[in-house]
# Entry
Amino acid sequence: MTLRNAPMAPPTAPPPLGARLVGFFLLGGTMWIAGLLALFRSIMAVVPT
Amino acid sequence: MISAFWRRWLLPFTILPLLPATMFNLFAGREVALLGCLLGLGFPLAAAWLMRRGRSGDAGLAALAMGGSVASVAWLGADAGPVAALVLAVGAWGGTRLLYSGVQEAAPPPPPPEPALPPPPRPLDDARARLRGIADAAQRLPEPRLLPVALAIAAVLDEFERRPERLEEARRFLGVNLDGLERIAARLSAGAESPPGLPSLLREMEAAATGLRTRLREEESAALAVQVNVLGGKIREAGYG
# Structure
């Protein structure tokens, strides 16, 4: 039985923390991969094999 | 809600992994790759500016800018071809979308406020408009006595507007003085020569207006003096004085 004046959960959804963490690591990982890829390919293009 | 650090400072920090490749391409003299790296540095800064602005739709634009940054680095900076650039760009775009999902964006700016309503008309506004016309005409006429008369009548109008119960008296006064002054100004504007009696008439009108204003003020002062006397007597009678 629920009381009529019992406090209820706020109607707003909690912040999507998991999605935010996934986005953070996806963005950061992509930037690192792009930066390292550019560095590696630049070095490989310059250094004569 | 997202904190200011995530909102303002995260995106500029994402250019850190691109700095080594940028420096290497700068020193190696590889112009196209350097351009790609510089574009990769510029897009995140633009995205950070967009997130700081925070208007509706700016989070989507910031995600597109991050995708463009990674795409330019991969395609131009790393010469990795369009497929790899597209894959990395989609990763950065999706990451930014997830990172800023549910971010609070400012509402579009409110419409400009409506212009303030004009003040309500006062009972003697028509007389004021006529006086303004007389004053305008007096500045063009060779008769210098018109303007002080108009100013004196305007002062009387101010006094009457503070006493709405005496508007009838004001209308009688204006019916004589303002009509006459208007006619004089109209004749003079039409090119009439001023007769010899006109300066003395204008002096009389100015003196009448000034006297009426003084009389109105004296009446108010006398009424206040009576009030003060009566109230003082009542206070003393009641034993408070």
Summary: Residues 196 and 202 of chain B are 11 Å apart (CA to CA). Chain B has two domains: 4-99, 125-238.
